[in-house]
Design a protein that fits this description.
303 residues; 5-stranded antiparallel sheet; 6 helices; 10 strands; 19% strand; elongated; disordered N terminus; Integral membrane protein
């Protein structure tokens, strides 16, 4: 995460030394917190407002972790964009924009404020709930599966380069029957997560030459559920569209037990809760373009 240069948010009792900030909006939210925007809000006990929130993570003068929730989304968006470009930005929200201050951090933060005690949860006060803590990602599950999909979206070129288009032109291609969402699906060989792989996922997509029947069945289910999203819109944020090079868009869709990452002009990758560490490539085929175009049309986009 980006690090600020000692910005502070001053409240009635103490100052908060800002370490980082993230957006919590329908189009951009920490996916580790949930499959969609309402689920991510629920993880923090927040009402899913249409315009979303900004989350400011920092420490008070005693070193305690706090998450300050503000409704000035544009301020946080500008700060994050500036930090991503290596620029300094004084993130100092107006006190009137503060919605609430929550003890703890919902995300892992690798930095700490200088000159204060090491990060720790604040002493519970009257009316305080349990301190926020990052989801457990030590074992494969929904949180790590979504983090893996995040990594593929950010490192698309590296993952795409490991897939040979010729691998999809095999007679074992499977399709989703009945709803037009069928695609050639790359089967895979079984292998464990790569130890050095980002996000706990295997360091290359599964091979299309293996047996992998459970993977094929899971991909059929994902494509069917993704197609159903077009007809019956899912909770806000389940399907998101973001910038990609050229005229393409990067699509991200999530559902119960699965994540899908795709480029509208290319293939897709699927991750499943039931396939620990595996990345299953989905060939473009004759029908994937239409499915991706339909998902992109109904997806939420950053404003």
């Amino acid at each position: 995460m980006a690090e600020t240069q000692g910005d502070t948010v001053t409240g009635e009792d103490d100052a908060l030394y800002v370490l980082t900030a993230v957006l919590l909006t329908p189009a951009k939210f920490p996916s580790v917190l949930g499959d969609d925007y309402p689920e991510a809000c629920a993880a923090l006990g927040l009402t899913p407002l249409a315009d979303g929130y900004g989350l400011v993570l920092g420490q008070d003068g005693d070193g305690a972790r706090w998450t300050v929730v503000i409704d000035d989304v544009s301020l946080v968006a500008v700060a994050v964009a500036s930090w991503d470009c290596g620029m300094e930005y004084d993130l100092s929200p107006d006190e009137s924009s503060v919605v609430t201050a929550l003890p703890g951090w919902p995300l892992a933060v690798a930095v700490s404020a200088p000159g204060v005690p090491a990060p720790h949860d604040p002493v519970p006060g009257a009316g305080d709930g349990p301190a926020l803590a990052p989801p457990d990602t030590t074992g494969w599950g929904p949180a790590q599966r979504r983090l893996g999909a995040d990594e593929i979206a950010m490192q698309w070129a590296r993952w795409r380069d490991q897939v040979d288009d010729a691998d999809f032109l095999v007679p074992d291609g499977v399709s989703v029957p009945g709803d037009g969402a069928g695609q050639d699906v790359a089967e895979r060989t079984d292998h464990g997560p790569g130890r050095d792989a980002p996000g706990g996922i295997a360091d290359r997509p599964g091979s299309p030459e293996g047996a992998g029947g459970s993977g094929r069945g899971g991909v059929r289910r994902v494509l069917a559920e993704a197609r159903a999203y077009v007809d019956t819109p899912p909770p806000l944020g389940r399907v998101r569209s973001s910038f990609a090079p050229g005229e393409a868009r990067t699509l991200r869709a999530d559902g119960p037990g699965w994540s899908l990452v795709a480029r509208t002009d290319d293939i897709a990758f699927v991750l499943l809760d039931e396939e620990p560490g595996e990345v299953l490539p989905v060939g473009r085929g004759p029908e994937l373009p239409g499915l991706l175009a339909a998902l992109d049309e109904m997806a939420v986009r950053p404003t």
